C-alpha cells in the first residue's frame, strides 16, 4: 500500500513538472549554468543551443573599435573625483569589452602636483591594471594617506619599487611633461576639468550626458552589436530558462 501511494505521488509530481516546464524546458545535464555556452556540444546536451547562439550573436565584434574615452583631470578635484568614481569606473566595470579608458592626470597643474605625479607613475607601472587602483585612490577620504598602505599595496601585485623610483626620479617628471603636452594640445582647448573626449573628440553635449548617464552614452556610441548589458538581452535570456 505504501509503495502504491509513493508511485501515485511520483506520477502526479512528474505530470505537474511536465506541465510547468512544457514551454520552457529546463536543461537536464551535468553542467552548471555558467558552462552551458562553453561549447556547441554542451549547449545541445543542456537544451540551450538557441539561447547560446543568441548570446554569442550579441558579443562585441572585435572588428568594431571600442569607444575610446579620455579623461583629462586633476586628482583631488571634487568634480573629477565624482565623475571618475560615480560614472566612469562603474561604467567601465560593466562595459569594458566595448570601451577603453585613458586617464591623463594633469588638468591645470596648480594644486597638489605630488599626488598627480604618484597617479602618473601608477598608470605607468600598472598599465591596464591601474584603473581599479586609481578608483581606490580617488574614492578614498584621504587620497595621499591611502596611496601606499591601502590602494597601492602588495595584494594589488603592483611593482611598488618601480612606482617609488618613478616618483622620485626623472621618469615621473617625464610622464608629467607628456601629460602636459597632451592636455595643452587639446582642440578645442580645455576650459575646465573634468574634460572628457570620446574617440578623440569633445562636445559639450557628450560631456553633459557623460556626467549623468555615461553608461547610456557609451552604449549609444558603440557602433557594433550592442552587448546584452546594453540591450537587456541577457535578462531576456535568463527568463527563457525554466
Automatic annotation (TrEMBL):
UniProt-recorded Gene Ontology molecular function terms: oxidoreductase activity, acting on a sulfur group of donors, disulfide as acceptor
The Saposin A-type domain, residue ranges: 22-62
Keyword Glycoprotein: yes
GO biological process: immune system process
GO cellular component: extracellular region; lysosome
Family recorded in the similarity comment: Belongs to the GILT family.
Quaternary structure and interacting proteins, as annotated: Dimer; disulfide-linked.
Protein name, as recorded: Gamma-interferon-inducible lysosomal thiol reductase
Amino acid at each position: 500500500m505504501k509503495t502504491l501511494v509513493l508511485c501515485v505521488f511520483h506520477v502526479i509530481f512528474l505530470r505537474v513538472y511536465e506541465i510547468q516546464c512544457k514551454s520552457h524546458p529546463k536543461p537536464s545535464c551535468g553542467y552548471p549554468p555558467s558552462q552551458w555556452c562553453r561549447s556547441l556540444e554542451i549547449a545541445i546536451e543542456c537544451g540551450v543551443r538557441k539561447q547560446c547562439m543568441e548570446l554569442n550573436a550579441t558579443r562585441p565584434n572585435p572588428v568594431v573599435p571600442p569607444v575610446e574615452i579620455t579623461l583629462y583631470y586633476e586628482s583631488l578635484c571634487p568634480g573629477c573625483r565624482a565623475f571618475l568614481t560615480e560614472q566612469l569606473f562603474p561604467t567601465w566595470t560593466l562595459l569594458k569589452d566595448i570601451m577603453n579608458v585613458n586617464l591623463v592626470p594633469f588638468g591645470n597643474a596648480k594644486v597638489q602636483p605630488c599626488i598627480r605625479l604618484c597617479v602618473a607613475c601608477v598608470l605607468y607601472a600598472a598599465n591596464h591594471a591601474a584603473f581599479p587602483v586609481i578608483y581606490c585612490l580617488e574614492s578614498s577620504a584621504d587620497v595621499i594617506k591611502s596611496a601606499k598602505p591601502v590602494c597601492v599595496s602588495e595584494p594589488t601585485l603592483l611593482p611598488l619599487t618601480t612606482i617609488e623610483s618613478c616618483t622620485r626620479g626623472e621618469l615621473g617628471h617625464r610622464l608629467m611633461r607628456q601629460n602636459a603636452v597632451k592636455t595643452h594640445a587639446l582642440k578645442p582647448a580645455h576650459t575646465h576639468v573634468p574634460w572628457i573626449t570620446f574617440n578623440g573628440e569633445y562636445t559639450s553635449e557628450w560631456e553633459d550626458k557623460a556626467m549623468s548617464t555615461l553608461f547610456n552614452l557609451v552604449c549609444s556610441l558603440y557602433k557594433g552589436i550592442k552587448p546584452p548589458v546594453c540591450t537587456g538581452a541577457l535578462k531576456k535570456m535568463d527568463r527563457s530558462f525554466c
